[in-house]
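We now fix the convention by which a protein and its fold are recorded. These numbers are not coordinates but entries in a learned vocabulary of local backbone shapes. A record is reproduced here so that you can trace the correspondence yourselves:
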Amino acid sequence: MYKNILLFLLLISSNIYCQRYTIQLYNTDNGLPQNSVKDIIKDKYGFIWITTENGIVRYDGNNFLVYKNFPLTSQRFTYFYGHPEKDSIYTTGDFEKAVLLHAKFPKVAKPLKDFTTFLTKENSHYFLYCSNFSYGATSVNFYINFKEGRYYIKENALTYVDSQSKAEENLQIKPIYNNAPRVFAINEILFYIDFQSKKVIKIEKGKITGSYRSPLFIDPKTKILWSQVNNQVFIVNKNTIYYCNYEKGELKISRLFQLNNVKDENFISAYYDKSYKKFYLGSSINGLQIISLSDFTTITRPLSKPESNFYSILPYNNSSVITAFGEIYDRNSFVTDKKFKDISPFIMAYDHSGNIITQKTNDVMIYQKATSYQDSVLLKNFSLKDFFFDQNKYYALFSILKINQFPEFKGVLTVYKDKSFKHPERKIFINSEPRKFIKFDQNHVLVGTAKALYKVSLKTNEIRNLIGKNEVFIRNIIQSKDGNFWIMTLGKGFYLLKNDRLIKMPYDINNNISSSHTILEDPRGFFWIPTNNGLYKVLESHLLQYAKDNASKVNYYRFSKNSGFNTNEFNGGSNICGSRLENGEFVLPSLNGLVFFNPLKVNTYYPKNMYVERAAIDNKEQRFTENLYLNQESNRVDIFIDVPYYSNPDNLVIEAKLSGMPTAKWETVGKDGKFSISNLGYGNHTFVVKMLVSDKGKFIYKKINIIISPYFYQTLWFKILAFTIILLLLYFLIRWRINFLKKKNNELEEIVNSRTKSLSDTVEKLEITKTQLHKEIEQQKKLIGTISHDITTPVKFIAMTAKEVLDKNDFNEQRMKKILNSVYKSSDQLYNFTITLKEYADIYSHYRSDKTELYSLYMLIEDKKILFSEIAENNNTVIINNVDPSLLIWISKNILSAIIHNLIDNSVKYTENGTITIKSEIVEEDITLLIKDTGIGMDEKKIEYYTRLQDNIENEKLLLQKYGMGLHLVLQLLQMIQGKIIFTKNKLQGTSFKLVLKNKKDD
């Protein structure tokens, strides 16, 4: 009894505080294929799966991926069952088939053996019961599977069958009411709602082991949303959602949130994702609601008050703040009202006594702490912009209006001698509208205006502009715990002041940091920065590192309306844009409410993993693992980066690049998780994705190989083959060219050799001819000299004889006869000389122009025989021609004819009553012609003379007058045809002339 009372009190206490939330609604208008959400589950990879009556949906926190058109008789799916931790989740399809969710994708498969949709036992039919889903038919039986056994549920009986022993336990209870089972399971324990005893009965292995009194379960208006595969039980009662859990022997119920203006009878499925603090609620007609439970609390003014637009706030106590309206709020609600009237919302400050300093029109109003801020002190004609104090003095920043050509605000920095506004010590005039000031050190103050940031010396009153010529609207100046000064601006971001130099901090991806209001620093070193569009969180160390190297990556974490705000626009422009409470909470003023939060308890959510295994190739989806194979015909390829992430998508930092390319750089992947590629050349490419997974700036990487098949002419083997062919063609072309050039060269060499040989032969012939001509000329000279000498004598004799005849008148017949006889002989000798000389000249001239011809030596001898036959007959001499009739020779016919003529002529002259025999022989390449007579013969002196003359005809003196011209001419002619004559005196009588002739064609 005590246990039940304690549980009831715990339930009542849980109703005191309800978790704040935001709702996102999805239906057929924005992602779902159908509005009836039957069941919801999360797989081991982090994806949310939803069953509908028109397919299965995978949700990654940003996009819905719909799967339908399975090869089943119906696309209507109901509950999930199986083992998510084993990557084995099933959902019902046909009775004989199911859809298996495995490795992040669904496929048709056979149902699990122990989880058939329908089974029969003892002629009774049972349907699988693993969630609150009901067929809504009468007389329906169900069964529930556990690891160690199975429960069979009938209207009037609950039977347990042990899996090992097959033993049965029957409980006489009525588990079915209005065709719906009144049972659910947590941690392999069955719970039965007993309306009669108004208790929840605990059943373990077919036996009742406990009971719990729980009014919520017994309430007829309560609806239970249960999922065995999720091991979660929720209670819906009067639009309030409760979470039921069994821990340490207790059935615990905690209130999650309350929904307004929703009919709870439409809820049929639910799933609570504790890691993201999100509640998924499925409706039978209204689709899916995603309820995000917030770490932030937004408090608005009471309904009796005007709009909840807050600016300057001050901490009031350790858990509340006071506004410029005099209203006090804590994280739960409005507390009380001090009723400040007509106070400017932009300036509030505490003085040294805890009094609240505010601005009322052009006067300063100081509310007194001593009277609990009911009384106030008015200071006339003070337009206060900011205020602070130290141990001894007040410091105030005032605004004054100067009217020259145009009205213009100026500033006055006033330092008071004590902690009052009565005794000014120094006034320093600022030539711009003042906005914020802060003490820099003992001797300097930083003053921010609508145009510049000034560093003011309290000793010399020197004012130095730290910005320069550019104008910057200063909104706030914050000093962090480490002593750094941070300058907040309007529209130009925020800066770090270092060594009197402003270092601009990088923007977030949406450039919302450009209008930042203040910085609240938590104990872990994070800055919380409210802006006109969201709240940002960033590590100060990352900002300092960026200021140091201007290259480090700075990642801002963004909180938006989905985190629990009424608006994304926080308010700035006041002297205090956020407060830090003693209990550790931060409070920020916004355009619609005060936002309370504990920075150490606010969760930041980062994805744990990403999956790159889908691509749309020309709008046709394709799955892959580590390698993506493409064709060059593909015009566009979209690679999907699937990331299960259920928080603000602005905090999903994914960048990708194609490495190995000259222009490769990290590109931001959009919220659709799609990276598009086009006109990528063939080959192997590497697609690299990185994703931020922590506040510390840690990234995880994923690498995919993109393999694009080349055309056959782009393959390596083709290039090698083509290169080889080109080399071979080039080789054969070079060989052909070389052979051609060699051939041409050989032909040219042959021509050159031929011409050289011809030229050499010609030169040689010319040399020979030259030599011969020289010899002939010399011989001719000798011959002419000899002839001249020999002719002179007969001519002189004839002349002397004629003179003698003329000088003497005495002519007797004898003397006259003698004289005439002498003249005759001399004239005849001279005549013969002349004839011989003429023949020699004719033969020489004809020799130079005659062409060599082939003729018969025998016929040549015959011609000469006929010529001398008459003379030979007168001398009773016989000429015998024994030359071989078949012998043909190339020797110059004119020269040989002249030689033979002279020799036969000599033989005929000196032979009487004898014979002249002519015969031929061939000795190797020479022809021997022998002319032998039986005449008087030549004496030895003549033979010796002619022999000596033949051997040295160039140098020997010619004895023409003594021996006549005949044989001299023969020797000269033989020299011309490279012949030779041998004179031999016959033993008996006569002389033999042996001619040795070269039988060759004269070219």
